[in-house]
Amino acid sequence: MGSAAAALFLPPATQIGGKSSLELKKNSSGLLYSRKSHKVHRPTTAVVVARLFGPAIFEASKLKVLFLGVDQARHPGHLPRAYTLTHSDITAKLTLAVSHTINGAQLQGWYNRLQRDEVVAEWKKVKGKMSLHVHCHISGGHFLLDFIAKLRYYIFTKELPVVLKAFVHGDVTLFNAHPELEEALVWVYFHSNLPEYNKVECWGPLREAAASAGHMGTAAGFSPATCPAVMPLKCQADCTCCFPPHSLIPWPQEFEQPYAGGSALPQQQQQ
Q: How many angstroms separate the CA atoms of 129 and 41, rounded?
C-alpha cells in the first residue's frame, strides 16, 4: 500500500531504480510482498520485553566514575560523601559522580528534567552507625511521570541492585579501605506526589541489597529481617555521633518517621 500510494504522486517521467512511475505502480503489489517478507519485528519486541522484565545486570564496562573534590579513601563518617548516578538511553552507559554533595551539573538539561531517572544517595552516621540513604523520583513535576508512576516504581525497585553495585564498584577505594561499610543499612526514599509510592524502605545491609534481585515493585515494600522496626533518627542536640548535621540531598524529604514494615507515611523530616 505504501509503494502504490507513493507512485500515484510521482510524475510520469520520474525514474526510481531505473523504472518509471508507471512501472512502479504495476509492480507495487510485488514490492509490497517482498518488503513484508523481509520485515521481522518480533525479535526486537522480545529484546525490549526482556530488558524491562528480565534480570537487572550490572556491567562495569559501562560505568564512568567522576571524583569531584573528595578523598577517595576518607571515611564518610568524617567528611560528607554523596553519589549522583545518571543513565543515558542512547549509549546505555552509567555516569557516577562521587562528591561532597549531589552533582547538580549532571542533572541539567531538558532531557534529564523530563526523564527524572537519576538516583542520588548520601552516607549518614546516626547515633554512631553508618547507613546509606538512596533517593529516587517516582512522580511529581509533570503529568507524564504521574501517569506511569506504577511502572517507574517497578523499574526503580528492579534496577536498584544495579545502582548499589555501581556505587560499590565505582567507589572501590573507599570500600577497600573501610570494608565494614558494606554492612551498613540501605534506606531507599521514593519521592512521589501519590501516597502509595511516597515512602521509604529498608533494604538491609548494602552487601545483601546489592546482591538481591530487588522486590520488583511489590506493594508491601521490602523489609529484610535485618532491618529495625523503627528508623533511627539523629540526635536533636549537637553531638559527635551523628554526621552530617544536615542532609546533602536538596529534595523534599518527608519520610523519616513513622516507619514500619518497609514503608513510611509522609511527615516532615527532622534536619
A: 52
* pLDDT, tens only, 193-203: 888 888 889 99
Q: Flag whether pLDDT at 163 surpasses 90.
A: yes
Q: What is the tens place of the pLDDT at every residue in 109-137?
A: 656 666 788 999 999 999 999 999 999 99
Residues 254, 256, 259, 261, Cα dihedral to 10°: 90
- Can you tell me the distance from the alpha carbon of 188 to that of 263, in angstroms, rounded to the nearest whole number? 10
pLDDT band at 37 (very low <50, low <70, confident <90, very high): very low
Phi, then psi, of 124 in degrees rounded to 5: -135, 145
How many Cα atoms are found within 13 Å in the side-chain-facing hemisphere of 130?
19
Residues 118 and 84 sit within 8 Å (Cβ to Cβ)? yes
Closest CA to 85 of 190, 169, 166: 166
Cβ atoms of 119 and 73 within 8 Å: the answer is no
